[in-house]
Design goal:
This is Fibroblast growth factor receptor 4-like. This protein is an alpha+beta fold and 543 residues long. Helix content is 30%, strand content 18%. It binds adenosine monophosphate (AMP).
């Protein structure tokens, strides 16, 4: 028998062309399975008995319509119908690129090309008009004479003595009498004096103490945050950035107290309307987009935590934010200064102390961090890097969770492992990470509980480096293999059975079966009561 390759007639499909094509709006129907190939402007698929190509894309700005994905926006536009133009400072496909235009130039949302403002030229508009030219596109010629300098923006002349006049072409008149000059100097002096008093009053009232970043900058950062963390972006109230802005000249940096891959932490003095205070100033180098995002993510989380603080939770176990500096080239997050430093260093320093009840009092820090996790849980924020190195001890001996930027710091070579899995961050704190975070990049409050279990282990070992299967250094694949075999950190020497049991529950494969931070707090408090000498607990209750 000879088979002739022949398609079904219009409107039919199937092996025997016995089925009716249900695609709408002029779509062609696949000869075998009936799938619709939509004409431009229509989308939709055949699902069970529901017709395909029956939804109009309604895309704007020349966007094409993909029958599965809907509108595919051209560069410069975003949104489900491509109705929104890229926010100021961003451009390109999906508005993913940053403009590099300077000196007030606008930037094309399509290709990022800079449209220089008056007086500037060059690719980034970074060059002032060459000598003798000024204005838009440096097209106008200066009229300044006698070696006067010409303003690149408006062409105004700054004369050299003895020349004067609009174009510096008139000789200055000698003063006929000293009296009028003296008079004008006196009145000028009193004006300056008056202005200084007004400025001082405004400063005292805090009106001049900080100038907020402009709304455009805030909008741009929000747009970035929305792409990373929708919940976080939504929890921020308008003006969130400006409310925390401090002036760089009010900060006096002091000694270095910590260093990370993205910047440094310095002890510093901050001038405030209430007087000078000591702060920890965390600087970031924000020249690349990753560190720029890290800076604003950490700033946004801290602002979000602080704006939600209310009378129910007056004492927070999250490091206190005191201000932000975003308007200078070096960006700063200003935090409360924790004189005892980080918990890991603290644990290692007290290794030789053999004091009754020491372990019980260390569990107090674990209780503090369990409370910090509860705060984050209420805000639906995952910290992603809960570890002793990211806990600070305050002057009042309270442990507070810090470092919300997933900053890869001095531990890069030992604690953070370079990861080549697509879609995951370059450096990951593998030995603190929950199995699902390693395998799928999923971070939740329950994955923070896994890391909290490792933090308990660090406390119980006085700051040892976590060791799996006899190894302190594991690759990504080795780590997954070890955990998948059910292997976990072993019980530290002298660790109470109940505490190790709590750690093991934090390391359950199934996130939902791990203890909640509330439950962990409860159990740690109970353990602490059993371990601390009775008089210490009584002392605490009195305090
Ligand atoms: P980070 O980049 O936030 O992990 O900070 C690096 C190191 O700087 C920490 O491990 C601490 O030793 C120190 N550090 C950070 N913040 C503070 C602070 N608020 N008070 C005192 N030391 C700090």
């Amino acid at each position: 028998m000879q088979v002739k390759p022949m398609g079904c007639p219009d409107g039919k499909y199937g092996l025997r062309c016995h089925k009716d094509c249900i695609c709408k709006n002029g779509a062609r129907c696949h000869g075998l399975n009936g799938a619709c190939k939509c004409p431009p402007g229509w989308k939709g698929v055949v699902y069970k008995k529901v017709a395909g190509c029956d939804e109009m894309c309604d895309c704007l700005h020349g966007a094409s319509c993909d029958r599965w994905a809907g509108c595919v926006c051209p560069p410069g536009w975003t949104g489900p119908r491509c109705q929104t133009q890229c926010p100021p400072g961003m451009y390109g496909k999906d508005c993913e690129k940053y403009c590099i235009c300077e000196n007030g130039a606008s930037c094309s949302p399509i290709d990022g090309r800079c449209n220089c403002s008056s007086g500037w030229y060059g690719k980034n508009c970074s060059k002032p008009c060459p000598n003798g030219r000024f204005g838009q596109h440096c097209q106008r010629g200066c009229t300044c004479k006698n070696r006067a300098t010409c303003d690149n923006v408006d062409g105004s002349c700054t004369c050299v003595t003895p020349w004067t006049g609009l174009n510096c072409d008139q000789l200055q008149q000698a003063t006929s009498s000293d009296e009028p000059l003296l008079e004008s100097l006196v009145s000028l002096g009193s004006l300056v004096f008056l202005a200084a008093i007004v400025m001082a009053i405004l400063y005292k009232m805090g009106i001049l103490a900080c100038s907020a970043p402009d709304a455009g900058e805030e909008e741009k950062i929000l747009f970035e945050l929305k792409k990373m963390e929708q919940d976080l972006a939504q929890s921020l109230q308008p003006g969130w950035l400006g409310r925390w802005e401090k002036k760089i000249r009010h900060l006096t940096p002091g000694p270095l107290i910590g260093e990370g891959m993205f910047g440094q932490v310095r002890k510093a003095r901050l001038r405030t309307p209430e007087g000078e205070i000591t702060v920890a100033a965390k600087t970031f180098r924000v020249e690349d987009s990753q560190s720029y995002r890290n800076f604003y993510r950490e700033a946004a989380i801290l602002v979000s935590v602080h704006q939600q603080r209310n009378d129910d939770y007056p004492e927070s176990n999250i490091v206190r934010l005191l201000g932000l500096i975003t308007k200078s080239p070096a960006k700063y997050i200003l935090l409360e200064y924790a004189p005892k430093g980080d918990l890991l260093g603290f644990l290692r320093r007290i290794r030789d102390i053999n004091e009754e009840g020491l372990f019980g009092s260390l569990l107090g820090y674990a209780v503090d961090i369990a409370r910090a996790l509860q705060e984050l849980g209420r805000l639906r924020i995952a910290h992603r890097d809960v570890a002793a190195r990211n806990v600070l001890i305050t002057a009042d001996d309270v442990a507070k969770l810090a470092d919300f930027g997933l900053a890869r710091d001095v531990y890069v070579t030992t604690q953070y492992v370079r990861c080549t899995q697509p879609g995951l961050d370059d450096f990951l704190p593998l030995k603190w990470m929950a199995l699902e975070s390693i395998e799928t990049g999923e971070y939740t409050c329950q994955s923070d509980v896994w890391s909290f279990g490792v933090l308990l282990w660090e406390i119980a070992t006085l700051g040892q480096d976590p060791c799996y299967d006899g190894r302190t250094q594991l690759t990504f694949l080795q780590m997954v293999g070890v955990l998948r075999q059910g292997k976990r950190l072993t019980k530290p020497e002298g660790c109470p059975e109940d505490l190790y049991q709590l750690m093991k529950e934090c390391w359950c494969d199934v996130p939902a079966t791990r203890p909640t931070p509330e439950e962990a707090e409860e159990r740690l408090l109970q353990l602490r009561r059993e371990l601390l000498p009775r008089d210490a607990i009584e002392m605490e209750t009195v305090v």
